[in-house]
Amino acid sequence: QVQLVESGGGLVQPGGSLRLSCVVSGSIVSIGDMGWYRQAPGKQRELVASIDLIGSARYVDSVKGRFTISRDNTKRTVSLQMSSLKPEDTAVYYCNAEVRTWSRSFGAWGQGTQVTVSS
Predict the structure, then answer these.
(1) What is the rounded average pLDDT for all residues in the chain?
(2) Under DSSP, is residue 33 helix (H, G, I), strand (E, B) or coil?
(3) What is 49-113 written as a DSSP string?
C-alpha cells in the first residue's frame, strides 16, 4: 500500500514562511514527477509546483519567486518552502506523486495539510 504523509502546515502571519514536507512510503518501484496542489474553499484544486526526477521545477505564476519545491529521491520526500506568504495562499495543500508499483502506475495523494495566512 502506498502512502503519502504531509506535515508542516499551520497558521502564519502575512509575510511569514512555512515549509511543507511529504514522505512517500510503500512497495514502490519508482517515483516520477512529484508536486504540491492546493485547494481553497469554493475553488478548484490547482497545481502549485511540480518537480521531475532530475529536479526540474515548475511553478504557477502566483507563487513564482516566493515558493521553492525540492525533492530527495533517496528519502522519497518532496518539500515546499513557502515565503512571503499572502492571505490568498490560504488553502489545504496536497502532496502528489506519480508512483509505479510492481502491478501498476498511478498518481498518489496525501491527506492534505491546512495552511492559513492571517493576521
Answers:
(1) 97
(2) strand
(3) EEE-TT--EEE-GGGTTTEEEEEETTTTEEEEEE-S--GGG-EEEEEEEEEE-SS-EEEEE---E
Burial of residue 77 (number of CB atoms within 10 Å: 0-12, 13-18, 19+): middle
Query: What grid cell was written down for 45?
Result: 484544486
In this structure, how many other beta carbons lie within 10 angstroms of the beta carbon of residue 63? 21
Rounded CA-CA distance 51/34 in Å is: 5
Q: What is the pLDDT of residues 47-92, one digit of tens each?
A: 999 999 999 999 999 999 999 999 999 999 999 999 999 999 999 9
**Amino acid in the structure at residue 14:** P
Q: What's the grid cell of residue 35?
A: 508536486
79, burial (CB in 10 Å: exposed 0-12, middle 13-18, buried 19+): buried
Measured CA distances, 67 to 12, 85, 90, 92 (Å) = 15, 9, 14, 16
For the chain, how big is the Rg over CA atoms in Å?
Answer: 14
Residue 15 DSSP one-character state? T
